[in-house]
From TrEMBL:
The keyword Metal-binding applies. Pfam families: IBR. The lineage of its organism: Eukaryota, Viridiplantae, Streptophyta, Embryophyta, Tracheophyta. Residues 58-261, 62-111 form the RING-type domain. This is RBR-type E3 ubiquitin transferase. Might act as an E3 ubiquitin-protein ligase, or as part of E3 complex, which accepts ubiquitin from specific E2 ubiquitin-conjugating enzymes and then transfers it to substrates. The gene is LOC107782090. InterPro entries: E3_UB_ligase_RBR, IBR_dom, TRIAD_supradom, Znf_RING, Znf_RING/FYVE/PHD. It comes from Nicotiana tabacum. Its EC number is 2.3.2.31.
Length: 261
């Protein structure tokens, strides 16, 4: 009888152990499900966040209006990769500079000297602004060039000379060739260095000798000889340059004290 009771008790203990094991297993499975669910939610959240941020990655910050705008609203400055501006702000910047007659127009960035080309802004500025822009660039390029007068004595043609160009020029008035670097009729067969060394023809030497004896003065600007027959020492050359006939300096009130020796 005792053996039977003992056997029953052992079976009960095994049953309890089995029950405890099942409970622990269930609890562990529940924990695993919670963790798996959490990981799933986290993964879904990350995926959603990535999808939401994607459109924002195509947004660019404008340094002028300080707004974030789409890439299609931004202006691409070919000569500068350091700054970003929207097309509206760039157009306003260009228009402001044109109104102030500032040429060329540079990047709106602080101390940035990158030049904005007119063609790149043709679609973002009014037609009249674009036309004035091109006109202003042409004027500024002429101002940067050197003014030259035709060296032939019977001509007074004026043209603009860029030192980067060839020295041989054609006078637009008399249609004769001359050397822009030397300021003389074209020296065929001689380069400028050789001409300046071997140089001046007899007529030029005679004219210079006569000018020296007659006390003629050469205009400091256009280099034409000027002879004063009467009047004061204040000379206004035909090229509109004012100089002192005594010392040859640029005219100022101080030159009244110059005396003819």
């Amino acid at each position: 009888m005792t053996d039977i009771i003992s056997k029953v008790c052992d079976e009960n203990e095994d049953f309890r152990a089995l029950i405890v094991s099942d409970d622990e297993c269930a609890e562990e499975l529940q924990i695993q499900e919670i963790i798996a669910a959490s990981l799933g939610i986290f993964h879904h959240h990350m995926s959603s966040s990535t999808m939401q941020e994607s459109p924002e990655s195509s947004q660019v910050y404008c340094e002028i209006c300080m707004e974030t705008k789409g890439t299609d609203e931004m202006f691409k400055l070919e000569n500068c990769s350091h700054h970003s501006f929207c097309s509206d702000c760039t157009g306003s910047h260009v228009e402001s500079k044109i109104q102030q007659n500032i040429f060329p127009v540079t990047c709106p960035g602080l101390r940035c000297r990158a030049i904005i080309e007119p063609e790149s802004c043709k679609s973002i500025v009014p037609e009249n602004v674009f036309a004035r822009w091109e006109e202003g660039l042409s004027e500024s390029s002429l101002l940067a060039c050197e003014k030259l007068y035709c060296p032939y004595r019977d001509c007074s043609g004026l043209l603009f000379y860029d030192r980067d160009q060839d020295t041989i020029e054609l006078c637009p008035l008399c249609r004769r060739l001359f050397c822009a670097a030397c300021g003389v009729p074209w020296h065929t067969g001689l380069d400028c260095d050789k001409f300046q060394k071997e140089g001046k023809d007899r007529d030029d030497l005679k004219v210079e000798e006569l000018a020296k004896k007659s006390k003629w003065m050469k205009c400091p600007k256009c280099k034409h000889l000027v002879q004063k027959t009467d009047g004061c020492i204040h000379i206004t050359c035909w090229c509109k340059f004012d100089f002192c006939y005594v010392c040859g300096g640029t005219w100022s009130e101080e030159h009244w004290s110059c005396q003819i020796s």
